[in-house]
Structure formats: structure tokens, C-alpha cells
Structure of Vanin-like protein 1:
Amino acid sequence: MWLYKFLLYLACNNIYYAAVSGEPTPPDADYYIGAVVEFPARTITAAASTEERLQQFGELLESSAIRPDIVVFPEDVLNDRDTPIVVPAPSDDVITCNADEAHYNYIISRMSCYARSLGIYVLINVVEVHNCTQTQNVSDLVANCAIYNANVVFDRHGVVVSRYRKYNLIGSEWLYFNYTSQPEEEAIFHTDFNVTFGHFTRMDLLYARPAQALVQRGITDFLHPSKWQSELPFLTAVQLHQSWSFSNNVNLLVAGTNDPSNGRSGTGIYAGKYGVLIATMTSVEKQSKLHLSVIPKHNASSEKVLKIFKLSQSNRKAQPNNSSQSVLDRFTGVVVARNNDIDLYVTQPLIGRTNMSGPLQQQLCHNDLCCNFYIEMHANPLANATTLSYYYRLAAFRGMGTFLNTEPDELAVCAIFACTGDHLYTCGRIYEEGVSVVPRYIFDTIRISGNFTRQRPCLLSPTSVDNLLMPLPVDEFEWQLQAHSNFTLANLTLLQPRSDLLTFGIYGNYFLDDTIYDHHHKDDASSLSSTMLLLLFLLNLQFYL
């Protein structure tokens, strides 16, 4: 055993010294070194803050003791729709470092210089203007130009090698932005360390295109600048990102914008079935930080590299909650939204019997989905009538739902989730900061299974989140899928006792096709924009009346 650990130590040091020396990772290595940046949201106009933010970008890159191969910056932290910039096409094969601002904005020039001088790949997110016939009046940009939420990737020489324009718009984005027509073609690039990446932005993660389409093409590594607004019970940032990475068994590098007072936080690196490599949620509004990790490639020898990393991280793993707990450790620094669709779920309160003489077994059905629950738990002797605790409900749902109560989504869910009271409207909420919460139960075992129809493409995922707004480590649950002719049987089992769960369950995201919800049809998009403009007009009219 000591020899095995010694060899792992040597291998780890070889990776470390190669990274410190600034040498690029060789193409035949089992790993690469990735970095993600958490960065504060814009609080003043983009024009006034962009120069300062670019300087901070450079400082973060230059101050790192370990030189990564690739760095991802967050969404919507540089410029806005009032200050859009021109981005060169990858086919131009141009190095924009120190370019004349008459041709390329200083954002593109400066980032090209950073990438070239440091010898790294860099992804940034900007608002791009394209095919513009009139630029003098900012208010006319949408009418006379194509405006995109765009990712731009620079290679080690400062060349723009990829440009992806956001495909799935949300809410008011339909009023201001265009969308790309070929997202999968734009969102792919290859690196000199022999990894092919796909990339997308925020809401794209929940849709078939481009994210799931790229997975189906065999892409195994993804970059994701994000400004994610967390939502309970199922879509807090790190919870969702680990779930998506795990279910697709792909590497996912997420750079998150920090705006915790508006529910936006969450940065991490995820290694598919191996789970979280690095993940953070922060309550610090102004925090900017670069996070690095050794990331295993998807090949036969990747497991060795991952074991090295896990060995170095083992002392950071939380201890299982298998004993009586007094006050729970909680994270309340992000304002988390509640998905009101859970009011439509079929639910049942989880009420422990006084003697806890045996397991609880229950089946709940909704439409064509039946969920089976098996729960072994015991009462926490430290909880009493004077302590505050979370209540729990079992839940089943199959039908149309939404994200942030606006974006249509077809879902199938079998889960247990926490509530602050014994009514359904209290579920999907957490106790506010400063409240001492003592767990009512210790969950020894939870087994959840469901028969999920295969009538349309679906991503089935294990989902979990604890009181720190972090998902359970992947070795604390077991996930199994069994495909049948017309349905998939999904099974999720909790392997270690926990007393701090907010959510534990199976989340099925059915991808809507064009016959159900084609939000990229030109006429529909125009109709949606017109409708939203009419609503805004009526609201303003009502205000003045």
C-alpha cells in the first residue's frame, strides 16, 4: 500500500512541476489542467467598468502559480447590449493582439494578448454585434444589426478558434438578442493537448441543442460560462452541474457570475461519473477567484490521474451524517428561488412513526409515472418541540413544468424534498440566515425508483442537494438505469446516512421537439417579442392611468 501511495505521489508531483514550469500538457498525457473563474456581476454600466474588469482578468491569469491549459470566464461580466463588439470569425484565422480598434475592440485585442503571452486557451463571454448597417444610435442596434450573447475562444497564439452564439434565449433576451442557426457546428474546437471541447451558455444546458446534441456526437469535455440563478428543489447551480456532468459522463468546466443577492452563484469543475473536482457557492458579491484542477481525459488510463486527485482531496471530504446532530451547518448566502410548479406535484408528507419500528414504503403516481419509495430512518434525539427542523414530502410529477416559472419544460420527477412547514407551499424554501436548524430525522437508507416513459428523448439524472447547497458526493449514492421496450426503470439509493438533505431524487428532463415548443421558429420568435412588447406597453399604460 505504501508503494502504491508513493507512486501516486511521484505522479502527482510530475503533473505539478510540469504545470509550474509553464509547459503545455503534452497530447499523449492522461490529463489536462483546467481553470474556471468566478467573477462579480456588473453593477455599473459596462462601458465604465470593462477596462477595469479586463485588467482584473489579466491579474487573475498572471498571478496563478500553476499554468492551466485552458481557462473559462463567466457570462455577462464584460460588456452589455449597449456596448456590443465585433468578433472575428474562426475562419479568419487572425491574431487580434494589439489590433487597431477600428477593426477589433480592445476586449478582443487584450484577451488575445493574454492568451498569447501566457500560452493558454481562454474562453470569454461577450455581447457581439454582427452585420450592422447602423451603429450610431444604440437604440437602433436591435433593429439594424444582429446582436448575440457569444462565447469567444482564443488559442495559445491568441487566434480566435471558436465563436458560439447562444441558441436558447430566456425571458427578455428575446427582445434584444438574435440566436444562432447552427449551434452544434459553432460550438466545437480542438486543442493541442488532444481534447475536443464543446461549449454553450447558461440555459443551453437544459435543452437538446446544442448541449445534448454535442454529447451524442461523442464530445466528452465542455466549457460553460454561466450566470445561473439557483432554484429549489432541483436546479441550484452546483447541484444541476454535477447532475448533468454525471448523467452524461462528461467533463464540465463551469465559470459562474457572482451576484448572490439575486440568486446567482456557482462555479466548479466536474468529472462525469467521478463527480465534483472543485465546486463553490459564495455569498461574497465582489469575489473574483481562479480555481484550478487536474482533469482526467476520457481514455483507459484516466482513472489513475483521478485517483491522484482524489487522494489529495480526501481530507476535504465531509464526514457522513450518521450520528445525532445538533445544529446543522447551512449556507444561506445566495437568495434561492422556489419553483412554484411543485405545487402541481402529487406529494405526501413524510411522517415518521413514533417507534420507527420499520421502513417506510410508499408508491406515488402522476399521469404515466409511478414512483416507489423505501426509507429507513431514525429520529434525532436532539430534536424536540422547541427546535426548528425541516419537514419532508415525497413527490411524483409527470407533465409540463418551467424553469424560473417562465421557460416551458417537460419533466418527470420522483423525489423527496425539504419544507419549512407541513404545507406544500413551504417546500422548496430554506430557513433564513441566523436560524438554528436541528434535523428531525437521520436518513439511514433511501431507495427511489420510477418507470420513465421512452416516448421522447430524455436525460434521466440523480439529483441531490444538502444544506450547504452542495450535491452529495457520487460515492454516497448508487444510480442504475434499466432500459425496457417502452420505459426506463431508474433506481437511486442513498448509501450513507444523512441528516442534512434538502433534495434527493430522480429528475427526468424530456427534450421538447418542434411540434410541442419551437422557440426558434422565426414567426414564433417575432410573435413572442411582439407579445412581450405589448405587455410592457400595457403595464406602463396601467401605471400612468
About this structure: The CA atoms of residues 154 and 342 lie 42 Å apart. Confidence is low (pLDDT under 50) at residues 1-10, 514-518, 521-545.
